[in-house]
Amino acid sequence: MLPAIGEFALWISLPITLWGAVMAFLGGRWGRGDLVLSAERSVYAVFALLAVASAGIIAAFLTDRFDFWYVSNYSSRNLETYFKVSGLWAGQRGSLLFWALNLGFFSALAVWLNRKKNRDLMPWVSGVLLLVIAFFIGITLFITPPFERLPFTPQDGRGLNPQLQNYWMTIHPPTLYLGFTAFTIPFAFAIASLLSGRLDARWIEVTRKWILTSWFFLTLGIVFGMRWAYEELGWGGYWFWDPVENASLLPWIVATAFLHSVMIQESRGMLKIWNMALVCLTFIMTIFATFLTRSGLIESVHSFALSLEIAYAFLGFMGVTFAISAILILWRLPQLRSDRQFESFLSRESAFLLNNLVLLGAGFAVLWGTMFPLITEGITGSKVSVGPPFFNQVNIPIGLMLLALMGIGPVIAWRRASARNLKKNFLIPTAVGIGTGVVLWVMGVRHLYALLTFAIGVFVLWIIAVEFWKGTRARARIEGENLAIAFTHLVKRNRRRWGGYIVHVGVVVMFMGFAGAAFDREVRQSMVPGESVSITSAFGHTYTLTYEGLSTARAQNMWQWIALMRVERDGQPLGTMTTERRFYEAPPQPMTEVGIRSTAFEDLYVILSTLDEQVGMGNDPQFQRATFQVMVNPLVPWIWYGGLIIAIGTLIAMWPGGPVPQQRAGSTGATPGRRDDEKGPGDPGIGAGADGDRSSAEPARTPVGAAP
Amino acid sequence: MNRDRRFFAGLVGVAAIVTWLIWTGITDTMVYYLTPTELLERMEDGAEQSERMQRGVKVSGDVLPGSLVAHTDELKHQFVVVDPDNRDVQLIVHFRHPLPDTFTDEAEVVMEGRYLGDGIFEATEVLTKCGSRYEALPEDMDDRDAGYGAEDPYAGYGDGDSYAGYGEVYPDAGYGAGELYVEATGEDAYARNGGI
Q1: Among A201, A356, A416, A646, which has the minimal tally of Cβ within 10 Å of its Cβ?
Q2: Are strands B120-128 and B86-95 parallel, antiparallel or unpaired?
Q3: How far does the CA of residue B118 sit from the closest CA of chain A (Å)?
Q4: d(Cα A406, Cα A605) in Å, to the nearest integer?
Q5: Residue boundaries of the structural domains of chain A
Q6: Of the listed ranges A367-371, A432-436, B25-29, the one predicted with least confidence
Q7: φ, ψ of residue B171 in degrees (nearest 5)
Q8: What is the average pLDDT across A482-500?
Q9: What's the CA angle centered on A101, arms A99 and A103, to 5 degrees?
Q10: Å between B30 CA and nearest CA of chain A
Q11: Do B21 and A389 touch (CB under 8 A)?
């Protein structure tokens, strides 16, 4: 019953979406409030209808309705219940509906939050959002119908790909989708701003929290995906530079650039055209990511199905979006002129601009590497391959540049840095960074990029620590608070700035985790129970793993062969760990489950590579012979710690409410380091708005957007 | 004006660095992606013994059923890969790592490695092409009219060209084997039903 209702809901959602879009644009054009109201009600209705449609799909999964093509291809009777729920995004047909649902949710939220604010922008915002939703509903209805029936009811479904039968399946895709779809809101506000001609920084202020929300989910989604790959794909790595992984990275890179460049517009009234271009580019990249993932145009480990209809539909949509954005920006060009000029290379503005250019450069490199095989084949007819070596070779230097800018950006003065500013802020951190590199070199680290990562990383951490310390101490002195309270108040006072610094700390920690890959160790050994293998890590710990034996177990839809290992580190017992071979029944396919034992600095990673063909044929240990691949991956845990720190920092920066950043420079205790630049805008707080000569046309910033 | 020009120079500088990185990256790491036939042709030419071919090459083809020889103890795998378009062209592949879970000896594989001569290819990496698909194969969607029986709908799961392979493992699950179809036998019935 519910599936049928869902299908009906999906069908009627399309005319309502189109009706709403027309009403929104007409209402905006003619200034008719009643039409705009109708459009906004359409947004709510569409969200409700999409929710019903999605519930219909989930109900079809839960009740094993194998007469649905989609269910019969992605589920089976013995599939765990939570994978039946996640069936909504397991395959192409459901996932495009899921995309529309997410977008519907955010659209309804945005419309509701702005029901009494920004009324001049809202008609256009609703219109743009509804058009984007209409595109996805259209695809769902006419190209990838999730409710399509088979002419008969199969006995059972084909089952879900075992690689997807992992708990991350319930977490990673929705997180990424939330990140992708949330970015449509800033895009819609930007377009609304262009259409309505209200080209001040308001669209940025309104969508600041939305940008952070999108970035938060994108970042988490990517990190979750890395963790999933690390646990599941069984090769000891977390990033493969696979086209589908790159597809998720591209919008993240452009969104990161945008996140930084909007601060320049808010504080200095510059880069207006640039920001408009970036917000449109980020949105197009989120669509491009879906296009790359869903069209199967590029061969990938993830190898999603090739579907030319989808490819054309997405290409068309991206082309139209690009054309409209470009035309609108060109049309409004005269009103988007900067309030100010750049004054010096050595200034925060140019550090931010450089950060933007470098990020876009990285994005272009990733895009180029991903598309290069396709382009070459199209032009020359010969097939080539560009793999991880290319991406590493190009992106590691770019990444190091970005890392260095994370240290420079926050403390270099606005407008024009004096020699005194530079000396005061950079002398000691640079010395500490170089010192770190020298110490590591003396300790025997010879890997150039790893040395640079640690040296630059420590440079950045030192700068951020000094900023926190100066701010806290100044506040403690002025307000007479103890350091802990002063610290909390400091962060609360300008959460965006300090949250941003915490994010930077997380990125540094994560980069150090990446650098750990330079010191991976690996051994491979075939063993019978009782035998053991030893491996020495880069940190000098010796792990000894003793193969205790093999056991079998039966789970809901698979058989497991479980190898038990006893682990010792430097002679001290560390307990046991297991690694498995699984044989799934639907679909019939083997899977390897790795064993991971994490310590603060390194992961012991064990793969049950191969089982003897005669396994299980008798009780003799000879029949339990298995080959193991044992790795020690230094600093991989730091990647996850870094991800966690980034998430915390982003949450601090984006959390709704909180005091409006003060207009007084210095009173937050945030500026002692820059008092010497009093002539320049004294406030270092990103967007803290202490810039006294700002044009008064820009309204006081109130946290809106996601804030209730 | 002068300032604008300086910033323009900065922009060009960054663009130049990135372009240089991409250019050297491509020339240093790009490898050819060939079929076994193309690989052997290039190797026989001799002129193609370029630095790039020495660095490595990517080859795709079908595993010859029954050709897999595995020495579990030392993780040595040997199998034969044939050109799908010309099954006489064969490569003997040596691979010293664990095979992917989705590898069967009927899989379509993409390998990276070096050609050692005498028809032997030393692979450093083996990926299966359709076995690792997260999606059901597009044939299922595009060739709806052909019905389920006609197009090898289970190819996506890497376990063979027939329902038989599926049925063995999971006798009641195959679409062709279920009790629902007692009255209708096999592929003709689906075709009569109008396909999917």
Answers
A1: A416
A2: parallel
A3: 24
A4: 32
A5: 1-160, 518-638
A6: B25-29
A7: -55, -35
A8: 89
A9: 70
A10: 5
A11: no
Q: Choose, out of A89, A152, A309, the residue to mutate when testing the contact with B (most B CBs < 10 Å).
A: A152
CB distance B18–A365 less than 8 Å?
yes
Looking at residue B102, its amino acid is T
CB pairs under 8 A between A and B: 194
Residue A271: strand, helix, or coil: coil
Between CA A429 and CA A450 the distance in angstroms is 18
**Which of A92, A307, A365 lies closest to B22 in CB terms?**
A365
Separation in Å, CA of B151 to nearest CA in chain A: 15
Tell me the pLDDT tens digit for each residue of A375-433: 888 888 788 888 888 999 999 999 999 999 998 888 887 777 777 888 888 889 999 99
Query: What angle, 0 to 180 degrees and rounded to 10, lies between the N-to-C axes of helices A184-196 and A122-142?
Result: 130
With beta carbons under 8 A apart, name residues in chain B contacting A385.
30-33, 58, 112
Domain ranges of chain B: 32-128, 138-192
**Cα–Cα separations (whole angstroms), residue A632 to A239, A443, A533:** 17, 20, 13
- Enter the DSSP assignment of B98: P
3-class secondary structure, B83: strand
- Set of chain B residues whose Cβ sits within 8 Å of the Cβ of A589: 101-102, 131, 157-159
- How many Å apart are CA A112 and CA A104, to the nearest integer? 12
- Residue A662 amino acid letter: Q
Q: What is the mean pLDDT of residues A91-102?
A: 92
Closest by Cβ to A383, choosing from B33, B101, B194:
B33
A565 in Cβ contact with A544 (< 8 Å): no
| Cα A389 from Cα A387, distance rounded (Å) | 6
Contact A78, A585 (CB under 8 A): yes
Q: How confident is the model at residue A591 (pLDDT cuts 50, 70, 90)?
A: confident
Whether the CB of B134 is below 8 Å from some CB of chain A: the reply is yes
Distance separating alpha carbons of residues A109 and A114, to the nearest angstrom: 9
What's the average model confidence in pLDDT over A532-541?
Answer: 92
The answer, for B178 touching chain A at a CB cutoff of 8 Å, is: yes
CATH topology of domain B32-128: OB fold (Dihydrolipoamide Acetyltransferase, E2P) (2.40.50)
Give CATH for domain A518-638. 2.60.98
Summarised one tens digit per residue, pLDDT across range A286-326 is 999 988 887 766 666 555 556 778 888 999 999 999 999 99
Q: Which two tokens stand for residue A617?
A: 């044929």
Task: Indicate if the pLDDT at residue B167 is higher than 50.
Answer: no
ipTM: 0.79
Look up residue A136 and give its amino acid.
F
Under DSSP, is residue A155 helix (H, G, I), strand (E, B) or coil? coil
Q: Which of residues 27-56 of B touch A (CB under 8 A)?
A: 28-34
Q: Are A37 and A55 a contacting pair, CB within 8 Å?
A: no
How does residue A455 score in pLDDT terms, banded at 50, 70 and 90?
A: very high
Does residue B171 sit at the A interface (CB-CB below 8 Å)? Answer: no
The predicted model gives A135-139 an average pLDDT of 95
Helices (H), A301-418: 308-331, 348-380, 388-411
Among the partner residues B31, B99, B166, nearest to A385 by beta-carbon distance: B31
With an 8 Å Cβ cutoff, are B101 and A357 in contact? no
Q: What is the pLDDT of residue B5?
A: 67
